[in-house]
Each structure stands twice: as structure tokens, then as C-alpha cells.
Hints:
By secondary structure, the chain is an all-beta fold. It has one helix at residues 13-19; strands spanning 45-46, 52-56, 59-65, 74-80, 94-99, 107-117, 120-130, 135-137, 146-155, 158-165, 170-177, 185-191, 194-195, 198-199, 207-215, 218-219, 226-232, 235-240, 249-253.
Amino acid sequence: MPAPxxxxxxxxxALAAVLGNAVPALATALPTPLNAPLVATSPVLTGAHGxxxxxxxxxxxxxxxxxxxxxxxxxxxxxxxxxAVCTDQDTYSSFxxxxxxxxxxxxxxxxxxxDCSGGQPVYYSWYEMYPAYPVNYDxxxxxxxxxxxxxxxxxxxxxxxxxxxxxxGWSHTVxxxxxxxxxxxxxxxxEAPSTLAGPLPLTNFGSxxxxxxxxxxxxxxxxxxxxxxxxxxxxxxxxxxSLSGGNAFSVTWKSST
Length: 257
């Protein structure tokens, strides 16, 4: 059945501080989950071999950020839709590629999700031009489905977002307009969506495998991206592996809260 239209705009109080006027007034009336910009909880640290690491309450994965005025105009990746393990707790998770959001007030993104509602998994897919409302697709999504996704700056203030479920045999391409996008980051992410009350419990998705990740047509690893671990109050929720071949990695669930 089609996914419930639960993805309306809202953000945490912390996000509101980060985003300022980017949060629409309707957010207070619709406290439902949103894939939102990064909420970092630690500075980026540079370790051995120049590898960069950071911590976030809502993102886990890799982020390429701008250096020397680099602008990011495309990001692509493949992933396998993970299987949710549900309990009586309602939980949420999303898997996506996008531009912006790490250091800016917009995110141009598309991906898939699995939530647990009433002890049952709900699988679905979507695109989002934050701070605009997200849009769900009605096509079927099942665990084990192979996804390919891309976000491309296709002209002045124009973006093309493509999401394909290779297993189910459907694909969507949308062309959207967003003024003054910073183009300051590109990312491949597993996320715990947020509401005004804060980041939501993360669905136990086991592990999600990303591959063929590129930025500006080059392997993600060419941009020395930041490896981000999801954690709250020092407690890990999802861990990100090292990059393999410069373009593949996994994110493993650790805890819902």
C-alpha cells in the first residue's frame, strides 16, 4: 500500500537555532518527521592519514564539504534497502543522497525510508527540497530492493532529482527550482528524522550498504569526506564504516535512542 503521508515539515529546537527563518510557520502545527540539515554535536577532527571524523544527532554517513570555494553540483549513490526490526516503539529512518545541509539552510535530496509504526515496518520513498515540504512516491518499496539515486544541479537555481528502484522496476525524475542554494556540501546519509521535540528514535535497520558514491562525477573519497557517526549524549546510534575503494561504505544501527 502507499506509504502514509507522514513527512511534513518540522524541526528540532536545535535545528530552529541553526536554520533561523528557514523554518516555515506551519512547522509548529505539523510536528511530524522531516529529513533535516545536519545537527553536529562535535567539531570535525582530523585523525591518522588526514581522515576526518564528526558526530551528529541525526546523520550518519559521509559528507564532502567545500574547500577553496569548491561548488558541488552532483551526487550519486547506490544502496540496498535494509530490513527493519520493529518492536512496540515507533521508530524512523531514511537513506538518501543530497546536496547542501551540512553548512547551509537548504537540502536537495532524494531517498528511501523505513519506519516502524505499531510494531509493523513501513517502507517508502520520496524527494525533498528543504525547507519545502517532502513528497512521497506511491510506488512499492521492499527490503532488499536495490536503489540508485542522484541529485544534479541542472541550471541556474535548477535541480534534477532521480530515484530508481531497480528491483521493483520503477524510476522517478523531478525537476525543481531552488534559489540561492549554497552548493557547499554533498552527502550520502542514513538519517534519524526529527520533529520539534528533537531527533526521533532510529529504526533498527541492521546495516545499510552504500556503493558507487560519486560527487561531481568523481569518487566520494577524492574529496576527503567527513565520516559521521550518529550519537546522542555520547551514546552511539549508528556507526559509519571506512570507505572501500573510495566509493563504498556501510552504516550499522547500534541503538534507537
